[in-house]
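Hello,

Following up on my earlier ticket. Below are the two sequence lines again, exactly as submitted.
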Amino acid sequence: MHEKTLAELSAGLQAGDFSSVELTRHYLDRIGRLDPQLNSFITVTADQALVQAEAADARIAAGEAGSLTGIPLAHKDIFCTEGIRTSCGSKMLENFVSPYDATVVANLADAGMVMLGKTNMDEFAMGSSNETSYYGPVRNPWNTECVPGGSSGGSAAAVAARLAPVATGTDTGGSIRQPAALTGITGLKPTYGRCSRYGMIAFASSLDQAGPMARTAEDAALLLGGMAGFDGRDSTSAERAVDDYVSGLDAPLQGLRVGLVREFMENDLDGAIAGSAEAVIAELRRQGAEIVEISLPNVHLSVSAYYVVAPAECSSNLSRFDGVRYGHRCENPHDLEDLYKRSRSEGFGVEVKRRIMIGTYALSAGFYDAYYIKAQKVRQLIAADFRAAFEQVDVIASPTAPGTAFRIGQKTDDPVSMYLQDIYTIAVNLAGLPGMSIPAPQVDGMPVGFQLIGNLFDEARLLNVAHRIQSETDWHRQTPEGV
Amino acid sequence: MSLSQDDVEKIAHLARLAVAPDEGAALSRDLSNILDLVAQMETVDTGGVEPMAHPLEMHQRLRPDEVTETDQRERYMSNAPQAENGLFLVPRVIE
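Thanks for your patience. The regenerated structure is below:
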């Protein structure tokens, strides 16, 4: 059953070929057998999953099922889940049991989906390899010596290893797309504000966005349709109707204008990764798309602006972890300052501390204009570059990540080299645009991602382009050995 | 941009983080490297550019001033490391 896509599983449930309980048991069994090697889950919620599966079967029997009803999924452990530990990959929240559900979790539960558990992630979503997790690194199902990418590395590995048909992720600078690329799956970061941030533990609030991780564009479309929507509890939620992401999936690409970013294709791009991207571009051309070279003159400043904006917002957001209201508290504090300092220093890992400190410095008196305001101005220039580009083209294409999955431990001593994993993805978050990674031809037996970037709220078009590519190629059908 | 260990300790204090003696050197090196990366943005002229705080042009929504949440103090305080009689406990602040 685990070879089937969400769309196929949904048809099987409706036809009565198997029940949601059987499907759920099948995935729970796979998690029990295969996850000890991968560490993609922090918490498995078997008992709750079977209760949800039984309810889904009743809905299907009553003829009240939608396309997501009875389908198991995994949630990144950044989403609050009522009554279930929500750790965000941190020691700080090791004992935190959320008193409420995130809106994305509630939306998918209302649609009848079955939660298998909570997936591993970089601590507070800060990382590109899943190595900053307090719960240990996740291993890439394609080569267990390698990282799965991050920060949604657990969700990516679980979907790639068929431990869940689909999973949720979040993306602040590439955290859905880069792990999707490194594990050979399909991941979409929607437009900022498309999915509610309510109950999604905040990292950088002007950049954070939830999205689907799946094996196909069609599955991503189905899951996004269940996740997205206006939410009055999120002050930056987009107040507009959710598009139908499925009905236009098969629209032909004849006449589609695809922009290739000159700055991405020439500067230091690895030859093998470029070759893989060119194969996807050739397929787009074969289907009648017009390939246009475009320029984003300020895009090379994305990483530097991001490492002011994101840490600044993180230092503000993570000030809530004070050892008083929830989260880790040190033993025997001798005064309030000692309570704050030791609770935070014991509860946070080294990468989180680095980012809090960079952000604190950038926001401190005397440096605010030089760092934070300057970064916001650069952000404006980058967003303007995209606005100009979308006057010429319908979608923008590039590689997702600069290479294939790297070895565990290879980049942990050099934060800056880790940050450069996201050189092709970060600008998309700064501009608030939707971006997607789909599998391209592999290099040396390891997955490679191809990124599609859309204009604001143009998710349906990205999914259409991705689906048309996947309808004519088998790059997304490759499966790791032993899975 | 280079941060001394002294700078690192000041920043850590502002962030209410403690830096262990053996962490100071590595932190000042790593933070300095990150600031070097950040310094690349100084190469572009941003005169006259409006800072972008947010990706979407939107206004803060207002809602009617009505009670929409029920009192769930007990439940929300159940994650508190130390609480008593509906209060969070901290070390004595005022003598």
